[in-house]
């Protein structure tokens, strides 16, 4: 009688384990089936974010078709990015001629989650706020870029007999 009870318990336990394994397999199957829909929803979300950004930009002074050749980077244009569809089948660029808006548009195409801080104070306060919000390595990289930009601007516009103001240490 005890051997029959042990066999029954072992059979019941085996059936329970088999049902649990089958349940896990079914769950994995359904999750795998849903992954395609999740990726479609992600692409749709990115497209909607770009459309929202384009609606917020002021209208362009020039038609976008004339601007496109000047602002489109060929490697980026060849890349398959989720963009808002337009009437001619190609994606529209930013709706503004401002360099800031065009660069922001290109950066958001590469990474729609990228955030840009609101900088509404004067230059020095904005730079101080940026320095506090950036990591040390990012700030050093930014300082290096500012130095190169300054050299570029100086090369573009040579100064005529002006006094050189030394930078403050601090």
Could you tell me the CATH topology label of the domain at 115-157. HLA-dr Antigens Associated Invariant Chain, Chain A
- The residue ranges in which pLDDT falls below 50 over 5 or more consecutive positions are 68-72, 74-90
CATH architecture grouping of the domain at 115-157: Orthogonal Bundle
Task: Describe the sheet with the most strands.
Answer: none
Overall 3D form: elongated
**Strand elements, count:** 0
Tell me what portion of residues adopts beta-strand conformation: under 5%
CATH class of the domain at 115-157: Mainly Alpha
The average pLDDT is: 77
Measured on Cα atoms, how large is the radius of gyration?
29 Å
Cα end-to-end separation: 90 Å
Helix share of residues? 55-70%
SSE string, helices as H and strands as E? HHHHHH
Instruction: Quickly count the helices.
Output: 6
* Broad structural category: mainly alpha
User: What is the CATH homology-level superfamily of the domain at 115-157?
Assistant: MHC class II-associated invariant chain, trimerisation domain
GO molecular function, one term: macrophage migration inhibitory factor binding
Keywords: Glycoprotein, Secreted
Organism: Casuarius casuarius (Southern cassowary)
Domain MHC class II-associated invariant chain/CLIP MHC II-interacting: 5-82
Describe this protein's structure.
This protein has helices spanning 2-56, 64-71, 74-78, 99-110, 123-133, 136-156. The protein is 66% helix and 0% strand. The chain has six helices and no strands. The chain is an all-alpha fold and 170 residues long.
């Amino acid at each position: 009688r005890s051997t029959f009870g042990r066999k029954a318990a072992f059979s019941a336990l085996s059936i329970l384990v088999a049902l649990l394994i089958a349940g896990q397999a079914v769950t994995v199957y359904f999750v795998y089936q849903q992954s395609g829909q999740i990726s479609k929803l992600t692409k749709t979300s990115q497209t909607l974010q770009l459309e929202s950004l384009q609606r917020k930009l002021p209208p362009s002074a020039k038609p976008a078709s004339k601007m496109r050749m000047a602002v489109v980077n060929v490697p980026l244009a060849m890349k398959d990015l989720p963009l808002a569809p337009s009437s001619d089948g190609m994606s529209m660029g930013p709706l503004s001629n401002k360099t800031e808006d065009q660069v922001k548009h290109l950066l958001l195409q590469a990474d729609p989650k990228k955030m840009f801080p609101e900088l509404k104070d004067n230059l020095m306060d904005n730079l101080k706020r940026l320095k506090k919000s950036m990591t040390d390595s990012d700030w050093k990289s930014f300082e290096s870029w500012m130095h190169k930009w300054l050299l570029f601007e100086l090369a573009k516009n040579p100064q005529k007999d002006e006094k050189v103001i030394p930078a403050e240490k601090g």
